[in-house]
Write a structure and sequence with these properties.
Layout: E1 2-7, E2 10-15, E3 18-22, E4 39-41, H1 52-61, E5 66-69, H2 71-76, E6 84-86, E7 92-95, E8 98-103, E9 121-124, E10 128-130, E11 144-148, H3 156-166, E12 170-174, H4 183-194, E13 199-201, E14 208-210
Parallel strand pairs: 3-4, 4-5, 5-6, 10-11, 11-12, 12-13
Antiparallel strand pairs: 1-2, 1-14, 2-3, 7-8, 8-9, 9-10
């Protein structure tokens, strides 16, 4: 599986010649460089995951690609005339042989009285799990986990307990677009998870990783 981090929670994932892009939000600028994209997967409607300008650029450059998301995001796109596949509530879809399963339906609570959007994690080819902005439980094998390691609702102890419970081989640093330099923090997390046999990877942006 080839994975490229474009920034924050935006990851390009390619497996068996099928290519999908997660969460092209407003922390990244999508230029005319992504081609042969089969789907854009949008976990929820917060602007750091969902930017209409980026989506328009991607669909213009990849007219055959579809959008895989939940009902709330689909409703926001209803005037755009896109090919949308609503995948939520533990349902799954087959994208040219890539199995994509929806896990979870809620965003992590931010604060009392703050309304949060519908938020859906996605499990890809029984290998990669993008938990989105929640620590969704998954009682299945996970090789690669994409999970936020910083956020307004974040608590490090909860993150570490969650990653250890999922037991992936590798966990990718995500949701860090608001951090100027996360290097030191990432080293601390990596050292803690290493004791549990989990590799924490702080990916260089725009670099392809074979994982």
């Amino acid at each position: 599986m080839k994975i490229t981090k474009l920034g924050h929670s935006c990851f390009l994932v390619e497996d068996n010649n099928v290519k999908v892009l997660f969460d092209p939000g407003d922390y990244v600028i999508i230029e005319n460089s992504i081609r042969n994209l089969q789907a854009i997967i949008i976990t929820h409607s917060h602007s750091d995951h969902f930017d209409l300008g980026n989506i328009r650029t991607l669909v213009k450059d990849n007219p055959e690609c579809k959008i895989i998301t939940n009902t709330q995001v689909s409703d926001l796109l209803k005037n755009e005339n896109y090919k949308i596949d609503v995948v939520e509530n533990e349902k799954s879809t087959d994208l040219r042989g890539m199995e994509i399963e929806a896990i979870g339906n809620e965003h992590m609570a931010i604060y009392s009285g703050v309304v949060t959007p519908q938020c859906t994690g996605y499990y890809i080819n029984k290998k990669l799990f993008n938990t989105a902005d929640n620590f969704n439980k998954l009682d299945r094998d996970v090789e690669i986990l994409i999970a936020p390691f910083t956020a307004p609702w974040f608590k490090l102890s909860e993150y570490l307990d969650y990653v250890k419970a999922i037991k992936p081989k590798k966990v990718l640093a995500a949701h860090d677009g608001n951090m100027k330099d996360a290097t030191g923090f990432c080293k601390k997390i990596a050292a803690i998870l290493m004791d549990s046999g989990i590799e924490f990877i702080n990916m260089d942006l725009n670099k392809d990783y074979e994982l």
